[in-house]
Amino acid sequence: MKFFVDTADTAEIKSLAASGLLDGVTTNPSLVAKSGRNFIEVIREICGIVEGPVSAEVAALDYEGMMREAAVLKAIASNVTIKLPLTPDGLRACKTLSGEGVMTNVTLCFSAVQALLAAKAGATFVSPFIGRLDDIGQDGLSLIGDIMTIYGNYPSLRTEVLAASVRHPVHLLEVAKMGAHVATLPPNVLRMLYNHPLTDKGLEGFLADWKKSGQTIA
Ligand code: G3P
Question: Which atom of ligand 1 is found nearest the CA of 127?
Answer without folding.
Answer: 2
